[in-house]
Specification:
Number of helices: 15
Helix content: over 70%
Strand order of the largest sheet: 1-2
Largest sheet: 2 strands, antiparallel
Distance between the termini: 154 Å
Shape: elongated
Order of helices and strands: HEEHHHHHHHHHHHHHH
Structural class: mainly alpha
Low-confidence stretches: 17-44, 385-419
Radius of gyration: 61 Å
Mean pLDDT: 76
Length: 452
């Protein structure tokens, strides 16, 4: 039976791979010596390939947007319930239609993606164990969950079943619909975990959906024993919104795998990798995580050792650097002292060269000052004896000559004002000179006085 099925699937695969797109045309000879054109066709791309992209970043973006949308519905509905009660019937968290629409849409999309996975898995030519059959039950299960979420049909069925077969429990109606739903969800999660073993994103969101669905069921069952509160309501509604979204994302990641990677069962791929000499068996998630941690630890240790070696090298080079800096500083000081000495010697030389010139200028200035003083000094008028025509006058002239010293003294006394005028003129000429020239002139006069 398996051999016939394998041959049938191989024939179907050959028929599916018949070219349908027009390619290059080649001529085939006919019996009459002519030729006819034969069109080579390529297999068409599946519509699902244009929807489910092979790029991983696109799926990460879709996952982020879906989770953000769920968070927006949760927080926005809570805000509308508290501050905008007029919109609570549509967008509210407790009685709004949007809270019911979001998980229904997620479950519908999950059913469509599950059908895509079924379509690709059925065409596997090596799945002899029939692992693909689980998708025949997954697709209608997700559709049933979608209908019940949108219409609350499970509550009506639970009331009818409890009226026909009543249970002696407080939450009898909840148990009627929650027990089969929980069993089906956990069973599908266990079976699909084998299918999605090579899809890290699919496994993550699959178990996230399972855990959040169990949390939602626990809150619903334990509500009579728990105190009503705002936090409990947020936990319940958040779990009710998260598990359908996570289920849809797990189907999306597995659709990417079966479309763009491989549609063969994971057990067969594991056996092929185990038998292959070029590749090793793929380790599990935790094994890969531990291996990555060990590699990161080794890299950190290597980096730490490298930094320690660089630090030791810098510590060894520091004394030499300090000595070199000190020697450089001393050399700079010596060079600066030498330049200062050269400048000082040049200044002394220039001063020595200017000294004779200064002495000559001082001598010229003193000579000029003396000449100016001599020109400004008034000349004394010598007395001339008066001519006398008589002897008495001549005798009087002799008497006047004998009395000349007294007259001379008298003239000297009369000449004192003229001497004072000469000093005043000298002071004026001294004031006309600069301070430096006056100092030099006084020094020159003192030297002349000492010499005399």
């Amino acid at each position: 039976m398996d051999e016939r099925r394998r041959r049938r699937l191989a024939q179907e695969a050959d028929q599916e791979t018949q070219p349908e797109r027009r390619g290059p045309v080649r001529a085939r000879p006919t019996g009459q010596g002519g030729s006819r054109e034969v069109e080579e066709r390529r297999p068409p791309a599946s519509p699902a390939e244009s929807v489910v992209r092979p790029q991983l970043w696109a799926h990460v973006v879709i996952s982020t947007l879906t989770l953000c949308a769920g968070a927006g519905v949760l927080l926005g509905g809570d805000w509308i319930d508290r501050f905008r009660p007029e919109f609570a019937d549509v967008f509210g968290l407790q009685a709004g239609r949007l809270v019911r629409l979001f998980p229904a849409v997620c479950l519908f999309v999950a059913a469509q993606l599950a059908y895509i996975n079924l379509w690709y898995r059925v065409r596997s030519r090596k799945d002899f164990s029939g692992r693909y059959r689980v998708w025949y039950f997954v697709v209608p299960a997700w559709l049933l969950f979608c209908v019940c979420t949108a219409t609350d049909a499970h509550h009506m069925a639970a009331r009818l079943a409890n009226a026909r077969w009543p249970l002696p429990f407080q939450n009898a109606e909840l148990l009627w619909w929650m027990t089969p739903t929980g069993v089906a969800l956990v069973t599908f999660a266990r079976l699909l975990s084998h299918e999605m073993r090579r899809t890290t994103g699919g496994m993550l969101f699959l178990w996230t959906a399972t855990i959040t669905a169990l949390v939602n069921a626990a809150v619903l069952l334990g509500r009579p024993m728990l105190s009503e509160g705002h936090a409990l309501m947020l936990v319940e509604q958040g779990a009710a919104l998260l598990w359908p979204a996570s289920l849809m994302l797990s189907m999306l990641y597995f659709a990417r795998y079966v479309i763009h990677v491989s549609s063969e069962p994971t057990e067969l791929l594991d056996e092929e990798e185990a038998d292959s000499e070029e590749t090793e068996p793929r380790p599990g998630f935790f094994s890969r995580w531990r291996e990555s941690r060990r590699e990161a630890k080794a890299r950190r240790a290597e980096l730490k050792a490298k930094r320690a070696a660089e630090k030791a090298q810098r510590a060894a080079e520091k004394p030499a650097a300090r000595t070199e800096a000190r020697e450089k500083k001393e050399a700079e000081k010596k060079e600066a002292a030498a330049r200062a000495a050269e400048k000082k010697a040049a200044a002394a030389k220039s001063a020595a060269a200017k000294k004779p010139v200064a002495a000559k200028s001082e001598a010229a200035a003193s000579k000029q000052a003396a000449s100016e003083a001599s020109t400004n000094r008034p000349q004394k008028a010598e007395p001339q004896p008066a001519k006398s025509s008589s002897p008495a006058e001549r005798d009087g002239g002799e008497d006047s000559a004998k009395r000349a010293p007294a007259a001379k003294v008298t003239r000297t006394d009369r000449a004192e004002p003229a001497h004072d005028d000469f000093d005043a003129d000298e002071d004026d000429s001294m004031q006309r000179l600069s301070k430096k020239e006056r100092r030099r002139l006084r020094k020159l006069r003192r030297q002349q006085a000492n010499a005399h």
